[in-house]
Amino acid sequence: MNAEQPQPEDFVSEAIIPAAGTFDPSAMSRGEPGLPRSFTWRDNSYEIARLVAAWKSSGTDRGETYLRRHWFSIETTAGQRMTIYCERQAKPGRSPKARWWLYSMGRPE
């Protein structure tokens, strides 16, 4: 597979645990979630090597539009491509700490 072409991704949709003290303070000063430099998923640690892309998604409620999620396409130090997101507000019934999610991850070549 050519390095310029995106890899197919597997849907995951599971909570991740950002490492404490690794959040990007410049993003947080703008009122945005600071992308953590590392996180844990399924008892494995991942370190973010680079941010590939970032975007936001919104939703509507009673006619009002609200910012719902901050999305990040990342590459880990091990070369894995992943898409993670931060929910602006935890969903009812979920832990208030469960705001960071692994949406998908690239399949190995």
Question: Could you characterize the architecture of this molecule?
Answer:
A hairpin with a 4-residue loop joins strand 5 (64-76) and strand 6 (81-87). A seven-stranded antiparallel β-sheet has the order 1-7-6-5-4-3-2, with no helix packed on it. It is globular, with a radius of gyration of 14 Å. The protein is 5% helix and 53% strand. It starts with 8 loop residues before the first strand and ends with a strand. By secondary structure, the chain is mainly beta. The chain has one helix and seven strands, in the order ββαβββββ. The relative contact order is 0.25. The model has no long low-confidence stretch (mean pLDDT 84). It has one domain. It has one helix at residues 25-29, and strands at residues 9-15, 17-18, 38-41, 44-61, 64-76, 81-87, 100-106.
How would you sum up this structure in a few lines?
With about 110 residues, the chain is mainly β.
Summed up, the domain count is 1
Number of strands: 7
- Can you write the helix and strand succession as a string? EEHEEEEE
Portion in helices: under 10%
Distance between the termini: 7 Å
Low-confidence stretches: none
Strand order, sheet with most strands: 1-7-6-5-4-3-2
Structural class: mainly beta
Count of helical stretches: 1
Average predicted local confidence, pLDDT: 84
User: Beta fraction of the residues?
Assistant: over 45%
Shape estimate: globular
Query: What kind of sheet is the major sheet?
Result: 7 strands, antiparallel
Tell me the radius of gyration.
14 Å
